[in-house]
Amino acid sequence: MPGKPVIYDELSAPQVKALIDGGMDMAIMPTGATEQHGPHLPLNVDYLCAYRIALGVSAETGVPVFPALPFGHSGGHSGLPATLSLRPETFQRVVEEIGEWAFDTGFRRLLFLNGHLPNLPPLNCALVNLRVKHPEFKLQAISWWDITPELQKRMYGDSSYGVPHGNVVETSIMRYFRDDLVDMSKATPVGGRGQKLFFYYLLSQISRTGHMGDPSVSTVQLGEQLYRMAVDGLVPQIKAALVEEPPMF
Predict the structure, then answer these.
(1) What's the domain range around 207?
(2) Distance separating alpha carbons of residues 9 and 6, to the nearest angstrom
């Protein structure tokens, strides 16, 4: 049976030391963004989804969860109001510095569970720098919809011009987490389904509303199903990661 999640910032310093001394050398750092998701969703979608999934995983593995990083690389939302963004190089620096402090505290395994797609390039650059400096530091970054092939298929299966943002997946999982923050009367479909563009464009150039896909068919039940798929898919990966060591040649 799942226990309670281990919420890092609710622990005292001696409790963190005891956790690490007891053999728990891994943590999960949720990353996301504070950005517009169209007229029907709140700004906290990306970091809230990553955080809630991380808590679900923690409850079944005992891996502590750091506070979610609420700001990410959201430059593509330029021209659409309400977004708060970091430059990619700033976000990368923040990730590296958090990683350094986690390493100094005694963690030797760290997963960045991401909820905002454009965060991945600066995340991976940060992890390369941390690995070079600390070869014994085991690091990974994964977006929650990439936990399993089925989740990935569902996420990208509802997109406009290949971009899934504020779509049926994000809207449904937010309905499960915080239905009070979702306005389904404004959850309208956006064109461009099944079409992909060669170049990258600002979101404001391909969507008048700031969201993509068709969130109008979103349900709380689908959101719960997606949440369970994410947690159930990641838990066995985390359990294996807790004992993984580099292969010997």
Answers:
(1) 8-241
(2) 9
